[in-house]
Amino acid sequence: MKATAIANANIALIKYWGKRDENLFLPQNSSISLTTDCLSVKTTVEFSSRNKKDILILNNRNYPLNSKEYKKYLKPFLNKIRKLAGTKRKIKIVSQSNLPKGAGLASSAAGFAALTAAVNEALGLGLNKREMSILARQGSGSACRSIYGGFVEWQRGKKDDGSDSFALQIAPADYWPDIRMVICLTSIKEKKVSSREGMAQTVKTSPFYPCWLKTIDKDIKSAKRAIKNRDISLLGKVSEENCLKMHALMITTKPGIIYWNEKTIALIHKTRELRERGLKCYFTIDAGPQVKILCEKKDLKELIKGIKKVSGIKNVIIARPGPGVKISKNHLF
Ligand code: DP6
Question: Which has the closest alpha carbon to 319: 272, 284, 289?
Fold first, then answer.
């Protein structure tokens, strides 16, 4: 009844922004991501009749049962799991991560992927990867992609019950060993509007939303072709365009959501300036102010040199393609 899993964050290249079913976390569109090798979450869970209530400890901090984290994000997911497993037992969850929470660095994706795999092991649910991805999706949509390593597609699916909305691996981590994602932290403050609230508001109020949906399939096709051919120019171009389109949706939501700060904008310009000078580098930004720059290993040195010229960057993390979720024998408690 006790198990531990490790999952890595994934960064979307073609973004998920909008649900068609908020209860089942069914997306309006398919998305594509790269699972990283360094932004990880390790989670140990134990279901026990000794636990009088659920216990949640994240990075050594105890989250009470009246916290937003538990009530809004975790409790509905745990209840789904208990129903699936036919148990009433309470769970103890201890989780350690090296990601800043709520800053647009996919902490929930890695968190729910690790939790799903740990629960699957602890309760002996026997779910395969596809089934785990369907379950993880219902904790946080993007978590379904962190079940797999390398390049991953989350297929939108068509069915109302969500049984065809899961992630699939496009290419494993070692398919394109030279690709890098340079993650520039511009702020570690927690964001004001969560992805969940933001995307729900966008679907309801952005006049651009129908246009977004019309162009997604083309972006997915281009990104898949680029990955297949290891074509950094094409992958970077389509990712950057798709990111700007998503931010246009956010900005035209009512009230407008602006996740960028002045350093985010400075990095956008810096990336483009370096590109004009011949460097193949392309940015992507999620629901937060951090800028992730896609490039290849050979251009890394020049890129970092350029980024360092932008003042106020808190930290730079260089990510490579990483593995999918894994079970570990080393428990956290
Ligand atoms: C901008 O997966 O965090 O990072 O499903 O409501 O938990 P919920 O949202 P979440 O949204 C991620 C949004 C994004 C784009 C992406 O990862 O595809």
Answer: 284
What's the rounded Cα separation, in Å, for the pair 158 and 140? 19
Contacts of 204 (CB under 8 A, 6+ apart): none
Q: What is the mean pLDDT of residues 253-269?
A: 97
Q: Which of 174, 205, 231 is the last residue of a domain?
A: 174
Please report the atom of ligand 1 found closest to the CA of residue 137: 5
Local structure of 48: helix, strand or coil: strand
- Give the Å distance between the CA of 197 and the centre of ligand 1: 10
Q: pLDDT by residue (tens digit) across 160-205?
A: 999 999 999 999 999 999 999 999 999 988 888 999 999 999 999 9
pLDDT in tens, 49-59: 999 999 999 99
Residue 325 CA, ligand 1 centroid: distance in Å: 18
Ligand 1 atom closest to Cα of 286? Answer: 1
Kindly state whether residue 328 falls inside one of the protein's structural domains.
no
CATH code of the domain containing 238: 3.30.70.890
Instruction: Give the residue ranges of DSSP H helices in 252-320.
Output: 262-276, 300-308
Query: From the alpha carbon of 14, which atom of ligand 1 is closest?
Result: 18
- How far apart CA 144 and CA 243 sit, in angstroms, is 20
d(CA 239, CA 242): 5
DSSP state of 104: S
pLDDT tens string 99-158: 766 555 668 999 999 999 999 999 999 999 999 999 999 999 999 999 999 999 999 999
Exposure b/e, 267-281, CB count within 10 A at least 16 = b = bbebbeebbeeebbb
Per the structure, the complete domain to which residue 157 belongs is given by: 2-174
